[in-house]
Design goal:
By secondary structure, this protein is of the alpha/beta class. Helix content is 34%, strand content 17%. A 5-stranded parallel beta sheet has the order 2-1-3-4-5, sandwiched between helices. Strand 4, helix 3 and strand 5 form a beta-alpha-beta unit. Helix 1 crosses helix 4.
Length: 180
């Protein structure tokens, strides 16, 4: 069993790589396409995976940011993310992991309560984004945010590190962990 570590590979020159992990192949591909349309000074690479661990025989670049995508309409989606988290080295959680909830727009049809994923993100001290990936406008907005987060995590934004980003995102949260 291989654990994904942030410094397994040397960084590519002016390259930023994100790994999107989730069970919704079509939605992940649409999000990846939206990200690649964004104006970015770095060369963007977007990799998709249904789950972790990644195959060990695949030649891949260094991963700068991992985003776990949870669909609130699928208990399998949450279980898949929870199992995949065990294959990520603890140092990734120093600002290089995020969670994205999709499907919150139709909350009446949800199989998973939103607070379950909020608690998961807080447990791993990682940022949480909400987006209905089926809506193009929302998908474009979250793609823009993810590209900006990725540039920071890859070290391409002078004066801002992944840890700075994490503390900035955390300070904007309102409720305390006990309130959830």
């Amino acid at each position: 069993m291989s654990v994904l570590r942030p410094l397994d590979k040397q960084p590519g020159l002016n390259t930023a790589t994100i790994l999107l992990v989730g069970t919704e192949d079509a939605l992940l591909q649409q999000l990846a396409d939206s990200m690649l349309k964004e104006d970015c000074a770095s060369e963007l690479k977007v990799h998709l995976a249904r789950s972790l661990p990644l195959p060990s025989n695949v030649n891949r670049p260094r991963i700068d940011l991992i985003v776990f995508v949870v669909n609130l309409h699928s208990k399998y989606s949450l279980r898949n993310v929870e199992e995949s988290l065990h294959h990520v080295d603890a140092t990734f959680f120093l600002g290089k992991v995020g969670f994205l909830i999709t499907g919150a727009g139709r909350e009446g049809h949800c199989s998973i309560h939103q607070n379950t994923v909020v608690r998961l993100a807080r447990t791993y001290r990682s940022p949480l984004l909400f987006c209905d990936l089926e809506v193009e406008g929302f998908r474009a907005t979250v793609a823009q945010r993810l590209v900006r987060m990725l540039q920071i995590c890859a070290g391409h934004v002078p004066g801002v590190s992944a840890l700075n980003l994490l503390s900035l995102l955390r300070s904007s949260e309102n409720p305390a962990l006990e309130d959830v």
